[in-house]
Fold this sequence. Notes:
Elements (H helix, E strand, L loop, with lengths): L4 E6 H8 L4 H13 L2 E8 L21 H7 L6 E5 L6 H16 L6 E5 L2 H9 L3 E4 L6 H11 L3
Parallel strand pairs: 1-2, 1-4, 2-3, 4-5
Helix pairs in contact: 2-3, 2-6, 4-5
Amino acid sequence: xxxxxxxxxxxxxxxxxxxxxxxxxxxxxxxxxxxxxxxxxxxxxxxxxxxxxxxxxxxxxxxxxxxxxxxxxxxxxxxxxxxxxxxxxxxxxxxxxxxxxxxxxxxxxxxxxxxxxxxxxxxxxxxxxxxxxxxxxxxxxxxxxxxxxxxxxxx
Length: 155
């Protein structure tokens, strides 16, 4: 049996590529990883107010052009979205507890967990826990990092 691995990607970073000319390529890469040994969990900041109204970032999870639908159409699976609680005074602790909770829920160790996010602090906290984390930026693109992950795991 293959060791299960957890791939954490910021929902907003997925959306930024999904709406570009590279969107289809993104979903093919994510699908390849989820057909292999990875479970995919999108991360997002917890909304200040939960609402039934449409028009927010989480509409990206619903409808014909949603992250979940586009990934499914490519043969992949989005396991879910994990909302990281926000708090001015306890944000570092919230990030660390969320990361620890995600790994615990999926039964993986930090060495089997990969995080891609444009949040400098989220990446720093993940790295501090031993998670293999990369900060996304114009010089460190999500597609490139996913291709490296596929190559490193012979998928």
